[in-house]
């Protein structure tokens, strides 16, 4: 069996969403499974197998999240779940993953998209133009390997 490598992840956030980049070039045979609590990714880049298996710090809204496979990476915009009955619906997370030790080894901050919590208003939301026409994630189980780009 071929060795499976852990794909490098970069992330940034706004109060209502996460921007996750799986930093692999020319991903083929990708399988992306996003649930409200975790992200599972498998794919090939330069004939090597990669995967990501992470559990989010808090729950997310899988059905309103999107992703797109681009030549240099896989980009995802993952919407945070709004806590029920909570007026303070949006907040910054202290980290991406539930497991702090895994975060140190697997995840880097995406400094190009990073803003401080108190600078969010002037920075605005993420530039989503790269994700236009991207694949929705919610309500599409079993789509693994059926990416929108020809291989």
TrEMBL record:
PROSITE patterns: CS
GO terms for cellular component: cytosol; nucleus
Signal peptide from the UniProt entry: none
GO MF term set: Hsp90 protein binding; protein-folding chaperone binding
Family matches, as InterPro entries: CS_dom (IPR007052), HSP20-like_chaperone (IPR008978), p23-like (IPR045250)
Family (UniProt): Belongs to the p23/wos2 family.
Name of this chain's protein: CS domain-containing protein
């Amino acid at each position: 069996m071929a060795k499976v490598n852990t794909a490098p992840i970069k992330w940034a956030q706004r109060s209502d969403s996460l921007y996750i980049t799986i930093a692999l070039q020319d991903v083929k045979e990708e399988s992306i499974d996003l649930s409200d609590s975790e992200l599972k990714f498998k794919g090939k880049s330069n004939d090597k197998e990669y995967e990501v298996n992470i559990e989010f710090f808090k729950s997310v809204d899988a059905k309103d999240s999107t992703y797109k496979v681009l030549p240099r990476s896989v980009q995802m915009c993952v919407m945070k779940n709004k806590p029920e009955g909570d007026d303070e619906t949006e907040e910054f997370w202290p980290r991406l993953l539930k497991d702090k030790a895994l975060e140190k080894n697997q995840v880097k901050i995406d400094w190009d998209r990073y803003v401080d919590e108190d600078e969010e208003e002037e920075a605005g939301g993420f530039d989503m133009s790269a994700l236009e026409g991207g694949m929705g994630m919610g309500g599409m189980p079993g789509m693994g390997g059926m990416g929108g780009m020809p291989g």
